[in-house]
């Protein structure tokens, strides 16, 4: 089963859940407050190819200083 990432809009906590693809768009209960959490696209599944053929990560950044997913210039 694929792993999906969810973010709770109430407490802001982030968690991952293994679910069948058929349930991937459904909301999941937050483990902390049991509020319905929205699915977010993980960096692994949100890779999109633009017209130039380059793979560009959308959303999800490992660098807090810039928006690059893999950043060598702002080592913190
Ligand atoms: Zn929550």
Topology record:
Elements: E1 3-8, E2 14-18, E3 28-29, E4 36-40, E5 47-49, E6 55-57
Antiparallel strand pairs: 1-2, 1-4, 3-4, 5-6
The site of zinc ion (ZN) has 8 residues, from loops.
Short description:
The chain contains no helices and six strands. It has strands at 3-8, 14-18, 28-29, 36-40, 47-49, 55-57.
- Residue fraction in strands: 25-35%
> Rough shape?
flat
Across the major sheet, the strand order is 2-1-4-3
Detail the poorly predicted runs: none
- According to DSSP, the number of beta strands is 6
Describe this structure in words.
With 76 residues, the chain is mostly beta strands. The chain has no helices and 6 strands. The strands form 2 sheets. The protein has a 4-stranded antiparallel beta sheet, with no helix packed on it. A two-stranded antiparallel sheet has the order 5-6. Bound molecules: zinc ion. The site of zinc ion has 8 residues, from loops.
Key structural traits:
76 residues, mainly beta, 6 strands, 0% helix, binds zinc ion
